[in-house]
Structure formats: structure tokens, C-alpha cells
Amino acid sequence: MQEAERVRAEEMRKTQMASSQQRAELARYEDELARSRAGQEHQKAQERNQQLVELQLSATRRQEEEKLRIQAQIEAERRATEQYRVSVLCPKAVNCLCKPVK
Q: Would you call 90 exposed, middle or buried from its count of C-beta atoms within 10 A (0-12, 13-18, 19+)?
């Protein structure tokens, strides 16, 4: 009987060790998967952030272009107004600033 008990105890020990090794391997695998997923999520977040930065830069460029266009339009309207004012004040001379003729 003692031999059978010793064999049974040895088999139980081996089974427990194998089970422990399997759990350790599974834990390492799950950890590796979690790290891989975290790395992929981080990469996706970086890509989304980069896209947002590019969209913001594009919007800023469009705003600046619109501002410059409006400034140019205002300046052109100022010049046209000044030319009209000069032509009304003195129709004989383009750059004359004399009083209007009545």
C-alpha cells in the first residue's frame, strides 16, 4: 500500500506541477495579448490624434486664407471708394484733391 500511495502522491505532484506550468504559460500569453492590444490601441490613438492635428491645421489655413481674401477685398473697396471720391471732387484731375465744382 505504501508504494501505491507514494506513486499516487508522485503522480499528483507531477499533475500539480504541469497544471501550474500551464497556468503560468496561459498568464504569460494573456499578458502578451493585453500588451499587444494596448500597443495597437495606442497606435490607433496616435493616428487619430495626427488626423485631428492635420484637420486643425487645415482649418487654420482656410481661416487665414479667408481673412487675407477679406482684407484684400476691403482694401480694393477702399481704393475704389477713394477713386470715386476723387473723381467726384475733381473730375478733371485723377489725383486732384480740390473742392467739388458746383
A: middle
What is the distance between the alpha carbons of residues 74 and 80, in angstroms, rounded to a whole number? 10
Compute CA distances 50 → 39, 46, 56, 64, whole Å. Answer: 16, 6, 10, 21
CA distance 90 to 85: 9
**For residue range 54-76, what is the model confidence (pLDDT) as tens digits?**
999 999 999 999 999 999 999 99
pTM above 0.70, yes or no: no
Torsion of CA 47, 53, 58, 64, to 10 degrees: -170
Residue linked to cell 482656410:
62
